[in-house]
Write a structure and sequence with these properties.
Elements (H helix, E strand, L loop, with lengths): L7 E6 L5 H6 L17 E4 L6 H13 L4 E9 L3 E6 L4 H6 L9 H4 L1 E6 L7 E5 L2 E2 L7 E5 L7 E5 L5 E9 L3 H8 L1
Antiparallel strand pairs: 1-8, 2-3, 3-10, 4-9, 5-8, 5-10, 6-7, 6-9
């Protein structure tokens, strides 16, 4: 569904530094994930990292965002690459926590945050529900509403890698979700 209504809001700035970590990533060694739609994109499951960056993600998700369950993906979109129009299916997080939820309930359970890890540059874009997120800066935090309902897409037709952090989670525990939906 596309309504051309702004369904996102800038809600803050990531409270820890990312540049030193991102610069060290050897994207050629990063494997494709099981739920990745576009083969050229590279994704790191940040919540699984056993280092200071992973600990910062864990603290941010649990303390600052008050998420009881979550996934956090660092994705690199190379030049010349597009993310086709889609809605979120929440395959990884529902599988990870063994959640059985009807698609119609996803937006009542899950929250999505989109956080660019590099400033917007020529050729980079992200469109959500037909509305562009404009002049983003590295570490801006955008909350996206209804990501299983509203279509979104993005791309990189520029010269530099486009790198983002996406956090999907719930402020309900897995047990509470099981109680509600079983």
């Amino acid at each position: 569904m596309i309504t051309y209504t702004k369904m996102f809001e800038k809600v803050g700035t990531l409270p820890f530094e990312t540049q030193h970590y991102i610069e060290k990533i050897d994207w050629d060694t990063v494997q494709k994930t099981d739920t990745q739609r576009v083969s050229e994109h590279k994704t790191i499951r940040a919540e699984l990292l056993d280092d200071s960056f992973g600990r910062n993600i864990k603290y941010f998700c649990e303390q600052d965002l008050n998420l009881k369950l979550y996934q956090a993906n660092i994705s690199m979109i190379p030049p010349g690459s597009l993310t086709p129009m889609h809605t979120n299916k929440f395959e990884y997080i529902t599988k990870k926590y063994n959640l059985i939820i009807e698609k119609e309930q996803y937006d009542n359970v899950f929250i999505k945050y989109w956080i660019p890890l590099a400033d917007k540059t020529i050729g980079h874009w992200f469109e959500y529900n037909g509305v562009l997120i404009g002049d983003w800066k590295a570490m801006d935090i955008y909350r996206l509403w209804g990501s299983s309902t509203f279509e979104h897409c993005g791309g990189n037709l520029g010269l530099e890698k486009r790198i983002r952090l996406e956090i999907i989670g719930s402020q309900l525990s897995a047990n509470k979700i099981h109680q509600i939906f079983t």
